[in-house]
TrEMBL record:
Coiled-coil positions: 420-447, 552-586
Keyword Coiled coil: yes
Entry protein name: NFACT RNA-binding domain-containing protein
GO biological process: rescue of stalled ribosome; ribosome-associated ubiquitin-dependent protein catabolic process
GO CC term (a single one): cytoplasm
Sorted UniProt keywords: Coiled coil, Cytoplasm
Organism: Chaetoceros tenuissimus
Biased composition (Basic and acidic residues): 769-827, 1069-1090
A GO molecular-function descriptor: ribosomal large subunit binding
């Protein structure tokens, strides 16, 4: 059976029903490229047609008792193949930039709620995902047939982006030969009538009318179905005859014979029912086969026009039609009832396959070969083994994950077998070469021995030839003489076989008497020996013996070399076999294990400082650009070094929410800046050059992408304006450590004080002391004000002189009190200035905070003396300063009024374009401010200058306007009529009572505005029972009367989902209670918590929301990085481990760490050695492996690529305590040597 590789119509129906039940109401947080998860079936071989959608429900944390992972779901969509939720997701490389299509999806869909999912047509493989409500809604259309496609449209189904542009061919009705193209491209309306079977039963270019009552086999009786089948067979015969004629004219012997065999006019019942005009082809092959088997027929039996009456009489068609009506509709209805279990069919592996996959016996399902996934067990699956899953999505997810793992395992097994065969071939070549050398050596030795045995005859032969040559005889005459002497049976001439006078050699045929038994009647064998005419017989023998010795030495060397070659080949083959076996094991473990979601900062180089600040840096120029544009916030520090290759580093400032809800930036510490500077230096070329230098930092507002006039900045380059703050030089020491992700709040609480920010603690303590001092001061002042009044009342009875003295004393005290009050005002103003300056500059040191402690002032301060010297007295100074402040406030008000007028005038130009644009307010404000002085004429001249002095042509959707064909316009109008439904028409189908309730909700100034409710939401409302519809409408009416509802359609959709999940009983019984908690409405605190939860979900990917005014609602990184620890405890719940490369001083408290200094070891080899040293670290420290085994297992599960990506290049490795261990081992060896002596 052929393995199933993509969805059919039945699978799409089952998955659509499950996604509708589980994911509706979730918000889209992000979109990722899923190239690592793509299969080889999709049309795009590069894997760029696979995407992973992160859907999250921020309000689900409360329902799941704070379990945030339960509110996140990953929806995998592969164009042309599948869509389902996944737990084995692996997004594309974190260092890579998202694809343009993924960026387009993020732009239009992020933060929108997933409102609806629909399968278009009659079980067609086209799915419509709707995000958002009203005019801002967008549709994502997935095509799962052919090469597939993924299309993003607006609420009117106008295409905004798509993966693949193509055309449909449409024939004109008037002219049969004339053809027009219906183009699928950006700016056009999605041609649903060509992509699906909503109004057309074929998309092959044939213009067929919408099906009538007798066009479907379900509406026929047995006899009509029989006649229809005969007509289809007749059409098949005619078509095959034409194909045969074309094949005959084209020639080709074997191919012609094969086609003749296939073109016999026969067809199966399954093939006939899968034709587009059958009326049931949308059932798909699986469901049609199930219905045929239920009717007691064979789906694969072939019949022709001549045999149809025997195999398929009209009576059997009656039974078939009945089963198609009953079984087909029954299975499709099961999906809507919530029965969405999943099944995977498999076959057991053969013994041969099991032997090959011996190493995989502990892997899940390693003894099975997956064949097919199904949302429902059909008739043809009755006798096949299967695995049942809780839902269909789990079955599909595991099926595709496992078959990819099986493919990788097969490739690994092939590599292993190839390595073994290569090693055998090398062994055979070496043995063959040695055998050849030995044979040659024996031949040389035997030749030398034969010459010695027949030395006299050899000398005579050499002498005869030499004498003839010395006499001047011609070579040809000499050969004739030898031939004549042979005929005369001359014994010496008979020994001569061949004369090679050009080489001064002759070949003699000598009898081998050494191995000849004289007692036998057999004659000795004759062997040919070549001798030199320049040497005697013994001279020739000596030469041959020398050659034998040389060959022997050569053979010995060859044996030694072959042994080395074999050892190297065996080692190489062993390494390749181990790698192949490792890949086989990892092929299942990586695909069948739930993949962790990587943190947003892992795509950069990063580390966490010892006082819990996050520092991130760019790996290349593109990442440097991305860091500054997306992740540099107000209050952060930009760090760099004047060394080639130094990365752009950002030290992220801590933030916290104030009581008013605003975000307060906390100051950075000196220690964090020093560690970040060390990180920037060690990641530059100074590391390889072993050069100790300094890094510098500036504030975020000093970094700009605007170059001076006449200059330009390349990618990753920035302009720094203002003073650079240089840091002290540091040693070139880095370390490789392991961070562990904590899994629950109790574990995080145990590590609360692990990375303390002492500078921040000192600042907070100083602020508390200042507050206490101010309170004490105010109390003392109030007491001093009460004391003079008591003295004057007690001394009212003495004499007049004492009264005058008392009056003078009170005047002096009042003067001192007024002076002290003026001093307090000045000091208060100074302290306010200091506090604001503190907030503006993000860096504060511990020494500064200590100096800011309040001290008792004696006399006037320097500031007060300056004020008195300038204005004469403090009272005069206060009056003048008050006037200055008042004038400044009036100037600010006038400026604000002018700006408001400009904004109103500019908003008139941009109001129409900005009405339907999301997130563009800040950009429009900047544009209005920049071009405030530019009128229409100046704007037109500027545009003409940009376009080379000619006016631009009008464009539509970013392209030139082209005359659209009639077929294109017709397809657009049909698509709008079918897909874009009118809310007013849909609401008429509801009960009058429900219409009245909805009308009360959307009535504004006595006008019923039905467009405030989406037609799709009203259709979903119609699927409920009448009582449930009434309860939902009453609930929406109640909400509209008691609170502000911004989006009626979204609110009604949420109520419908609640009714579908929990029922409508008691939905409106809560209206009598005034308590929000009893009523079920969210309080303001719950809404704020939900917004905060959503910001945290976005912050996982480094996404920073703004409030629409350009103000970022930044989330503090501390909450996320506090869940990472380098000192795991035995009671901690740990999810996974992450490698990190950081300055060695920050890893002092880490359990597993390795020290790195500049060296010659490359990253790949260094990462492996680091892993080995970390795994041995417990043994070096003398600890048992059992308590730490789970930590080591998590470290082993870290991917090799993660180690390599974290490692810095060209290092020398040394672990803590390794030198002591080496000294101990050397000392123990010396002691053993002494004892042996």
């Amino acid at each position: 059976m052929k393995q199933k590789t993509r969805f059919d119509g039945l699978d799409v129906a089952g998955m659509t029903a499950q996604v509708r039940q589980t994911l509706l109401g979730h918000k889209l947080a992000n979109v990722y490229d899923g190239m690592a998860l793509s299969t080889s079936i999709s049309g795009d071989s590069s894997g760029k047609s696979t995407f992973v959608f992160k859907l999250a429900n921020p309000s689900a944390n409360k329902e799941n008792d704070g379990n945030t992972s339960a509110s996140r779901n990953m929806l995998l969509i592969e164009s042309g193949v599948r869509f389902h939720t996944t737990s084995f997701y692996t997004t594309s490389d974190n260092n890579s930039v998202p694809s343009p299509f993924a960026m387009k999806l993020r732009k239009h869909l992020r933060n929108l709620r997933f409102e609806n999912i629909t399968q278009l047509g009659n079980l067609d493989r086209v799915v419509d995902f709707r995000f958002g409500s009203g005019e801002k809604s967008c549709h994502l259309i997935l095509e799962l047939y052919g090469m597939g496609n993924l299309i993003l449209t607006d609420n009117k189904y106008v295409m905004l982006a798509l993966l693949r542009t193509h055309e449909y061919v449409a024939n004109k009705e008037e002219e049969k030969d004339a053809e027009e193209e219906v183009k699928v491209r950006v700016g056009n309306v999605y041609p649903v009538t060509y992509a699906t079977t909503i109004t057309k039963s074929s998309t092959n270019g044939e213009n067929e009318e919408e099906s009538t009552t007798k066009d479907s086999i379900l509406d026929m009786n047995g006899k009509e179905a029989y006649e229809w089948t005969k007509s289809e067979l007749q059409a098949l015969v005619e078509k095959q005859a034409i194909q045969a004629q074309l094949a005959n004219t084209g020639g080709g012997g074997k191919k012609k014979g094969k086609k003749k065999k296939d073109l016999d006019g026969s067809a199966t019942l399954k093939m006939i029912l899968l034709k587009p005009n059958s009326g049931v082809f949308h059932y798909g092959p699986s469901l049609i086969e199930h219905c045929i088997l239920s009717a007691g027929l064979e789906p694969t039996t072939k019949f022709t026009l001549d045999t149809i009456e025997d195999f398929m009489p009209p009576q059997k068609f009656e039974t078939l039609i009945e089963n198609l009506q009953v079984e087909g509709s029954k299975i499709i209805e099961n999906f809507t009832k919530g029965e969405n279990k999943g099944y995977v069919l498999y076959k057991e592996k053969t013994k041969k396959d099991a032997d090959v996959s011996e190493v995989l016996k502990n892997m899940p399902h390693s003894d099975k070969m997956f064949e097919e996934f199904q949302p429902h067990l059909l008739k043809q699956h009755a006798n096949k083994p299967y695995i049942e899953y809780h839902n269909f999505s789990m079955a599909v997810d595991e099926f595709f994950s496992l078959i990819e793992g099986q493919k990788r395992a097969i490739r690994a097994e092939a590599a292993e077998q190839s390595a073994i065969e290569r090693l055998d071939k090398i062994k055979k070549d070496q043995s063959k070469r040695m055998e050849g050398l030995e044979v040659e050596m024996e031949k040389v030795k035997e030749s030398a021995q034969l010459i010695e045995m027949h030395a006299d005859d050899v000398d005579k032969a050499i002498g005869v030839i030499n004498s003839a040559l010395e006499s001047g005889m011609d070579w040809d005459a000499l050969e004739e003489l030898v031939t004549v002497e042979k005929s005369n049976l001359n014994p010496i001439a008979l020994l001569m076989k061949k004369l090679m006078l050009e080489k001064d050699e002759i070949t003699l045929s000598l009898p081998d008497t050494m191995n000849w038994d004289q007692d036998t009647e057999d004659t000795p064998t004759i062997k040919d020996v070549t001798v030199s005419l320049k040497e005697s017989a013994y001279g020739n023998a000596r030469q041959l013996y020398d050659k034998y010795r040389i060959s022997k030495d050569k053979a010995e060397k060859t044996v030694e070399a072959s042994e080395k070659v074999l050892q190297a080949a065996e080692a190489n083959a062993k390494r390749q076999i181990e790698e192949a076996q490792k890949k086989k094991k990892m092929s299942y473990s990586t695909m069948m294990s739930i993949q962790r979601k990587q943190h947003w900062f892992e795509k950069f180089i990063y580390f966490i400082t010892s006082d819990n600040y996050l520092c991130i840096g760019g790996r290349d120029a593109q990442q440097n650009e991305q860091l500054v544009k997306r992740y540099l916030r107000p209050g952060d520090a930009y760090l760099h070094a004047d060394v080639h290759g130094a990365p752009t580093c950002i030290l992220r400032a801590k933030r916290r929410r104030t009581e008013s809800g605003a975000t307060e930036v906390l100051p950075l510490s000196d220690q964090a800046l020093r560690e970040a500077g060390n990180f920037a230096i060690c990641r530059s070329s100074a590391w390889g050059a072993r050069m100790v230098t300094s890094a510098w930092w500036v504030e975020s507002h000093q970094v700009s992408k605007t170059a001076p006039t006449g200059e330009y900045l390349s990618v990753g380059g920035f302009m720094i304006r203002g003073k650079k703050n240089f840091l002290p030089p540091v040693q070139l020491e880095m370390g490789m450590g392991v961070l562990f992700r904590l899994g629950d709040e109790a574990s995080v609480a145990r590590h609360h004080n692990e990375r303390r920010d002492f500078a921040l603690m000192a600042l907070e303590q100083a602020a508390e002391e200042r507050a206490e001092a101010n309170e004490a001061k105010t109390e003392s002042q109030s007491k001093q004000e009460k004391l003079p009044k008591k003295k004057t009342t007690e001394t009212s009875k003495p004499k007049q002189s004492k009264k005058s003295e008392g009056a003078e004393g009170t005047k002096k005290q009042n003067k001192k009190a007024s002076d002290s009050s003026s001093e307090d005002k000045v000091t208060d103003a100074i302290s306010k200035i200091e506090i604001t300056n503190e907030k503006e500059s993000p860096v504060a040191s511990l020494s500064d905070s200590a100096e800011e402690k309040p001290k008792k002032k004696k006399g006037l301060s320097a500031k007060e003396r300056k004020l008195i010297k300038k204005y004469g007295s403090l009272e005069a100074a206060e009056e003048i300063l008050a006037k200055v402040r008042k004038e400044e406030e009036e100037a600010k008000k006038r400026k604000a009024a002018l700006n408001a007028e400009k904004e109103e005038s500019n908003s008139q130009h941009s109001e129409a374009s900005a009405a339907n644009t999301r997130g563009k307010k800040a950009k429009l404000k900047k544009k209005a401010k920049r071009y405030a002085d530019q009128d229409d004429e100046d704007r037109e001249l500027a545009l003409m200058a940009l376009q080379g002095g000619s006016k631009s042509k009008k464009k539509k959707g970013g392209r030139n306007i082209e005359a659209e064909s009639e077929s294109q316009l017709k397809a657009a109008s049909e698509a709008v009529a079918l897909l874009v439904r009118d809310s007013k028409e849909v609401v008429q189908k509801l009960a009058p009572e429900i219409q009245d309730l909805l009308a009360q909700i959307v009535t504004v100034n006595d006008e019923v505005r039905w467009n405030k409710l989406d037609a799709e939401v009203l259709e979903n409302l119609m699927t409920l029972e009448v009582e449930a519809q009434k309860a939902a409408a009453q609930r929406l009416l109640q909400l509209s009367q008691t609170s502000r509802v911004d989006n009626f359609s979204a609110s009604l959709a949420g109520i419908i989902r609640t009714v579908q999940k929990y029922g409508h009983q008691g939905l409106n019984d809560q209206k009598e209670s005034e308590n929000d908690a009893q009523r079920g409405r969210k309080t303001k605190a719950e809404k704020e918590a939900e917004k905060e939860a959503w910001r945290e979900i976005l912050a996982e990917d480094g996404i920073i929301e703004d409030d629409g005014e350009g103000n970022e609602l930044s989330v503090d990184d501390t909450a996320e990085i506090s869940k990472l620890t380098g000192k795991p405890m035995s009671d901690d719940v740990i999810l996974y481990a992450i490698p990190v490369c950081a300055p060695y001083s920050t890893l002092a408290q880490y359990k597993y760490r390795v020290k790195l200094t500049p060296g010659n070891l490359k990253r790949g080899k260094a990462s492996k050695q680091c892993l080995e040293m970390i795994l041995r670290s417990d043994e070096v420290k003398g600890k048992g492996p059992d308590p730490n085994q789970r930590y080591l297992d998590m470290i082993k599960n870290i991917n090799d690529n993660e180690w390599v990506q974290a490692m810095c290049g060209d290092v020398k490795i040394s672990a803590a305590g390794a030198s002591k261990a080496i000294k101990k081992s050397k000392a123990s060896k010396k002691n053993k040597a002494k004892k042996n002596k």
